[in-house]
């Protein structure tokens, strides 16, 4: 995993992001891409001072690991963190007033629940807003026949992602683009 530490892979990476990425790798090694606030620290500085991020993740420890970096960046006031498994219990009781008030949603969670998240987010994200789904290429296996995917763990995730990709491609409520960066990112713009 040496490529993760090479700075040439991150040409515009803020110094705090670099420090967080390196600290995450040092602590978690192979699992260096788990959420430790890196995505939050990437987005929060770009928001206006009164902008808000609602972050839902079951792993409070990982969030707390990244929290000092978020604090040093001076953006902690923009983040509402909810330690919850969004696939089972959103952790937030949406009361209806939030409907149509989100500009953007980024989903990097359990792939078998992506369709559940999609239905919730279609209510929360306003018309014209964006929902981004991470890992929609699933190591390139979505382009392979299922029987050619050797590892069982990869095959399970692949099948979940194929179902999601097919659903999103046919959903008339969104316009989408699959961006082949990283492990694939699908951007859905809510049409109605």
TrEMBL record:
UniProt keywords, alphabetically: Metal-binding, Methyltransferase, S-adenosyl-L-methionine, Transferase
PROSITE patterns referenced in this protein's UniProt entry, alphabetically: SAM_OMT_I
SUPFAM superfamilies (alphabetical): S-adenosyl-L-methionine-dependent methyltransferases
Molecular-function GO term, any one: O-methyltransferase activity
Pfam families cross-referenced by the UniProt entry: Methyltransf_3 (PF01596)
Enzyme Commission number(s): 2.1.1.267
Taxonomic superkingdom: Eukaryota
Gene Ontology annotations of biological process type: methylation
Homology family: Belongs to the class I-like SAM-binding methyltransferase superfamily. Cation-dependent O-methyltransferase family.
General function of this protein: Methylates caffeoyl-CoA to feruloyl-CoA and 5-hydroxyferuloyl-CoA to sinapoyl-CoA. Plays a role in the synthesis of feruloylated polysaccharides. Involved in the reinforcement of the plant cell wall. Also involved in the responding to wounding or pathogen challenge by the increased formation of cell wall-bound ferulic acid polymers.
Protein name: Putative flavonoid 3',5'-methyltransferase
Organism: Rosa chinensis (China rose)
């Amino acid at each position: 995993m040496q490529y993760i530490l090479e700075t040439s892979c991150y040409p515009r990476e803020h110094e705090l992001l670099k420090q967080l990425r390196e600290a995450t790798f040092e602590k978690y090694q192979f699992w260096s891409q788990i959420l430790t606030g890196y995505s939050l620290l990437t987005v929060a500085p770009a928001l206006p001072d009164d902008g808000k991020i609602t972050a839902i993740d079951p792993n409070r420890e990982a969030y707390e690991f990244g929290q000092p970096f978020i604090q040093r960046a001076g953006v902690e006031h923009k983040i509402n963190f909810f330690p919850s498994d969004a696939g089972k219990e959103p952790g937030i009781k949406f009361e209806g007033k939030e409907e149509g008030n989100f500009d953007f949603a980024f989903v990097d969670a359990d792939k078998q629940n992506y369709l559940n998240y999609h239905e919730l987010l279609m209510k929360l994200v306003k018309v014209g807003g964006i929902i981004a789904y991470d890992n929609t290429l699933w190591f390139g296996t979505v382009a392979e026949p299922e029987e050619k995917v050797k590892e069982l763990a990869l095959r399970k995730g692949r099948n979940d992602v194929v179902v999601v990709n097919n659903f999103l491609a046919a959903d008339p409520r969104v316009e989408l683009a699959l961006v082949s960066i990283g492990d694939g990112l699908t951007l859905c713009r809510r049409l109605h």
